[in-house]
Write a structure and sequence with these properties.
This protein is mainly alpha-helical and 114 residues long. It has one domain. Helices cover 79% and strands 5% of the residues. It is built from five helices and two strands; from the N terminus they run H-E-H-H-H-E-H. It is globular, with a radius of gyration of 14 Å.
């Protein structure tokens, strides 16, 4: 049940960021939920593979390359969903950074209510 609430809060964060960032568009609220679900699945399945494949670059850049991996995951979600679009990798990078910040704030609010 808690993961459904986290999914919905991530969808809210996606909608907020789509309204704020001009390079990111979401067709509607249902697409925002799909975006949150697809990004979550890509982070679970694809992200570990990308981290493993780019481990030398990640070590050399002291972990900053993980930001690029997150942006690639956002662009992959853009590829899979027709109702979600990100114009460039720079918007995807900014979107992933702001999404992580918003998710941490919103998920902390869930933990504080216990």
């Amino acid at each position: 049940m808690k993961w459904i609430l986290k999914l919905l809060l991530t969808a809210v964060a996606v909608v907020i960021l789509a309204k704020v960032l001009p390079g990111v568009e979401v067709a509607g609220y249902w697409y925002a939920i799909l975006v949150a679900l697809v990004i979550g699945l890509l982070k679970v399945i694809v992200r570990p593979i990308l981290i493993l494949l780019t481990l030398p670059v990640t070590i050399i850049t002291l972990g900053l390359f993980l930001l690029i991996i997150n942006a690639i995951i956002i662009l992959m979600a853009d590829y899979f969903l027709s109702g979600f679009s990100v114009s460039t990798i720079w918007w995807a990078l900014l979107f992933s950074l702001l999404l992580s910040i918003l998710q941490s704030i919103l998920h902390k609010m869930i933990k504080d209510k216990k």
